[in-house]
Amino acid sequence: MISFEQKELLKDRILELVNNGIKGTELVVKIISESDVLIHTDVVKVIEELMEQGEMIEIDYVLPSMEYRIKSFYLPKGTSISIEK
User: Fold this and answer.
1) Which among 54, 3, 4, 50 has a CA at the least distance from the CA of 27?
2) Does the global pTM surpass 0.85?
3) Neighbour-count burial for 25-44, b at 16+ CB within 10 Å, e otherwise
4) What residues does each domain of the chain span?
5) Which CATH class, in words, describes the domain spanning 4-76?
């Protein structure tokens, strides 16, 4: 379990990394590699909390070559998304 102060610092760092968009796996790996006290579940919980608060959005997608795997991409709040075929 992380302290309130650690959680707030973690939120700020996550939002900083998400500012230009980032793949889900890259975000988690980057955050964990920067800290010797955080674990995967701490990071995921804070990411989910930020999404619930509307601070960031997650796009889940499946590539045709990897239909067995769901991938995620995170973007900052206020991002406009356009999907073209």
Assistant:
1) 50
2) yes
3) eebbeebeeeeeebeeebbe
4) 4-76
5) mainly alpha
Alpha-carbon span 35 to 39, nearest angstrom? 9
**pLDDT by residue (tens digit) across 28-74?**
999 988 887 777 788 899 999 999 999 999 999 999 999 999 999 99
Q: Which two tokens stand for residue 77?
A: 């709040």
> Which helix (H) or strand (E) segment is 23 a member of?
strand 22-23
pLDDT of residue 35: 82
Closest by CA position to 74, among listed 41, 7, 25: 25
Task: Give the integer Cα–Cα distance in Å for 13 and 24.
Answer: 14
